[in-house]
Amino acid sequence: MRLGVCRKWLVLLVCACCDMRAESPNERWLKLQSEGARLREQGKYEDARHAYAEALRVAEAGAAEKLTQTLNNLAASCYDGGHYTEAEGYYRRALDMPKPDQSAEARRTQASLWGNLAALYAATARVNQAEPLYRQAIELADQPDEESTALRATLVGDLAGVCLKQGRPREAEPLLLRALDGWETKPETSKMALLLNNLAAAYQMERRYEEAESFYRRALRINERLLGPEHPNTATSLNNLADLYRAEGRNAEAVPLLRRATEIDEKALGTAHPDLATRLNNLASVLMNQGALDEAEPLYRQALGIWEKAFGGGSAQTAVAWNNLGSLYLKRQRYVDAESCDRRALEIWTAHVGGDSAQAAVALHNLGDLYALQERYGDAEPLYRHALEIREKAYGPESPEAAASLNGLTAIYLRTERMGEAEAAARRVLAILEKVPDADSPKLMAALRNLAEAFAGQGRMEAAESTWRRAMDIGEKSLGPESGQLLPVLRSLALVARGQGHYTDAEGLLQRMIAIAGNTYGEQALVLASTLSLMGDTYRDDGRFAAAEPYYQRSMAIWERQLGEMHPAVAAECNRLAALYQKLGRFGEAESSYQRALAILDKTDGPDHPDVATTLLNYAGLLRQMKRKGEAQRLEERAKAILASHSPPQGKVAGPVNSIR
């Protein structure tokens, strides 16, 4: 039975085939072009690429016009899929095709190709090469017909995107408004969504956040309606809106948008696409802002791996990942790793855009921050000066970028007790920022904090406290009373109160800090650990030793979890606990804590580090109290030998480096 059924089916198939007409090459080409366009519109870029590749094989035996169109479409699908080298080859091959005439259609084709190649350059960090291509394409498309007008509007919008990448929003805005002329009355398209997105980016760069959010949301709605909620263009809109929230300090709102964008790109583009790396990098940055360092680090590493595979290990894109990893390791106090990352970023940017470029200034400034935190002020100062010189030349001496590096120099002056220079520099930074429309409140607060420290260093405590309170007022009004960016100012005010013996006032400020740090950054954040430790110090100084202990213990647990049990921060907490136990008469616990601190410091800093000497002297004091004078003397002799081998340390002022980079 089964054999008979098969025979019948085969006969019917053969008969049907006899009636079929062979598909012509032109019909086959049109079918493949249509299929490629459909797949590309759906975000299925690899499938589109295969369809266009097959169309190319058909077209290679046909007319040059058909071949040019096919090469352009194949290049575009390669570009969408992240195959940039392959895309560039197809675009250049299309551009090298003979030009039989200079009709309006031929000029549009040529302009489209120049524009597409320019877009490829912009996506691969070659914006300086992209801009002249866009301008050439716009000139070619300067025709009165409707199609040329539409193409010219697209190219003008893309040129504005290059201006944005180069940090020129004021040049981008009129170009975008020109491209969008009358857009409110036109049908919504994906091209309109792109233009609205770029206009929003321009407003974001100008800190016109309310207008930026409106246009980002409009672009997102268009993409979701026209392309669907799972399309890569929708992911781009989500990413851009999230970046606006990040700039406004709305990190909690940014995270779910970035997670959704990442999921869309992983599903639509695959795990090796450069756009996915961008999403991962941005998600990691927001998580790092929230103190989620454990989650952020592997995301940065994954983004770096994708960019290295797509563009090469020394590409400009990888410099971004190295720079961000350096910032993360700085927060983790992994200074050796941070320096390695910052130097790698500087090396790459120097190779691509020069050692006096704006990008190199970022790496130089970051290295300055790193060395300042390590108290390597002699190393930090020339880096800040170099970064300042670059930024003054690139952006102007009154620019916020120049103010950031000048602020770094201010910190160096403070730490080396050059209070007159610090005050002058801080006043200049403040003057620059006060002229910037809607200047970032955190940057104003940092400048005011440094000015306050300069006053304090000169014994002008009334002026210092007044300046800190001004910084607090600005922060509370613009950021809200629970913002994590208030913590450095609260810390300074708490230290002033403690220094004046106003322990109750200090306690209130620190309790507020603990609540803000926990709510903003989580119960395992390093900033919370340092605040808990400071609360312990306050109770200790006030003679409330039993009240201090749980704060030190809680701080210790966070340091151990986040930095590891052999980190110098853990050793510092061991020292605090040992001194507390000594006050409480719990000598055994005190001795164990001193011994643990020494074991950590011997391994991490070396046996001849000044911090080892300090711990030895503290331990010797305990031993003398325990009537073990011989052991105490040996520790004291070792400590004196260590201190004698080191030149006197540079003067320091209490408090962190107030960075506005």
Can you walk me through this structure?
With 661 residues, this protein is mostly helical. The chain has a domain of 133 residues: Tetratricopeptide repeat domain (Serine Threonine Protein Phosphatase 5, Tetratricopeptide repeat), CATH 1.25.40. α7 runs antiparallel to α8 and α20 runs parallel beside α22. The longest helix has 20 residues. The N and C termini lie far apart (82 Å).
Shape type: elongated
User: Into which percent range does the helicity of residues fall?
Assistant: over 70%
**Residue fraction in strands:** under 5%
The count of helical stretches stands at 31
Radius of gyration: 31 Å
What does the secondary structure layout of this molecule look like, with pairings?
Layout: H1 2-18, H2 25-41, H3 45-59, H4 64-80, H5 84-95, H6 104-123, H7 127-140, H8 146-165, H9 169-179, H10 190-205, H11 209-226, H12 232-247, H13 251-269, H14 274-289, H15 293-311, H16 316-331, H17 335-353, H18 358-373, H19 377-395, H20 400-415, H21 419-435, H22 441-457, H23 461-479, H24 487-499, H25 503-521, H26 526-541, H27 545-563, H28 568-583, H29 587-604, H30 610-625, H31 629-644
